[in-house]
Amino acid sequence: MTMNNMPGIQSRGTSRDIKILGFNRNIFFTGLTSFLTDTSVKMIYSVMPMFLMSIGASKASLGLIEGVAESTASLVKALSGFWSDKIGKNKPFMLVGYAISAIIMPLYAFVISPIQVLVLRFAERFGKGIRTAPRDSLIAASVTNKDTGRSFGLQKAMDNSGAIAGPLMAFAMLSLFPDNYRLLFLVAGIPAIAGIFVIIFGIKEIRKSKAELFQKFRFRDFSKRYYLFLGIIFIFTLGNSTDALLLVKANEAGIKVALIPLVYLVTNAVSVIASIPVGSLSDRVGKEKILVVGFLIYALVYFGFGRSSDTAVIISLFALYGLYSAATDGIQKAFVSDIVDTNKKGTGLGIYNALVGITLLPASIIAGVLYDKVDSRIPFYFGAVMAILAAILMGIFAITALRTPTAVGTTAGNPDRKA
After folding, report:
1. Would 236 be classed as within a structural domain?
2. Is the pTM of this model over 0.70?
3. Is the dihedral of CA 191, 192, 197, 200 positive or negative?
4. CATH code for the domain in which residue 113 is found
5. Is 216 part of a structural domain of the chain?
6. Is 411 a member of any domain?
7. Vertex 74: Cα angle to 73 and 79 (nearest 5)
8. Which residue among 180, 186, 203, 407 is least enclosed by CB atoms within 10 Å?
9. Gyration radius (Cα) of the chain, Å
10. What does the buried/exposed string (b/e) look like for 366-397 if buried means 16 or more CB atoms within 10 Å of the residue's CB?
């Protein structure tokens, strides 16, 4: 039996030939896995702030729990990305990472204190840390026709489709069983378990030759553009605190707890509709331009959250927040994929994901403390200012890249043209 005929393994050529709905099979099934897992996660996440406060958590502790969970597991994202590049495999990391999350989901039903939520949240994010960079690396390796923006746009759209299904299911369950968070947590594990079977039977490993493997990490192996981009992302993320505070703001503005999942659904619905078109647009006009627009939209949204308590305005801001998400999350990963060499994509994406996760700790703590101790408007104004600064720097970054040729890296808009 040849390597190409072995179950679960495909050569680069073979894996790229099979299409489902116009997408490479790996990209499609990776998206489906994300849809199922995100359905589970968002069933829980859409009600977690209210559940935590029902068991004695403060608003500051909401930010602390999210920040610690994301940041302490973030190093795993960089390590798993490097390890997947080193051995030339992504599927095993995806399988283990998604399995950890699937096991953790139902355990929320048995917690009685915020510290237990922190432990489970850390374990679940640890699983995400294991799978994220290898998954993104597999997507990048499966891209055809240089449509990285479109491919990562599908991933984002499927993520957010799950983020629509999850809150809808949460809304239905809370309507039938008011305040029965624990039953909701038990049911939430089912879609995530289904996602494991999609990985096993749907995703095919892309075989790499020994010469393609990334054996040793050195900082100089990555371009200056890559590090400058990470610096801009750090500045932006410092003002990008946990979405839990947005949900709390919505509740304080007069939106009932049972309706909070539907408000969060608005964000994800807009993101689903916009992600693939925006991703395709970024492939044509340049990802830097789309990111500048995305940062400015975020600034507008956060300024609006700080300024208004009108429920109609809040719901409109959640819709606009979905457009911001479509213009940034997948685009940032696609841009990293464009400017990092083929054999280092897992490592490059892992470092990017780790930076975002680590920065969420100070970002969430700052926002939570400002909300609780200073004024509920201040964390939103702080986020808006940081987003505007990131947009200005991203604009300078794009102009400089056009004027200054480099020996390493490619432009976001055209991966074949030297920056």
Report:
1. yes
2. yes
3. positive
4. 1.20.1250.20
5. no
6. no
7. 100
8. 407
9. 21
10. bbbbbbbeeebbbbbbbbbebbbbbbebbbeb
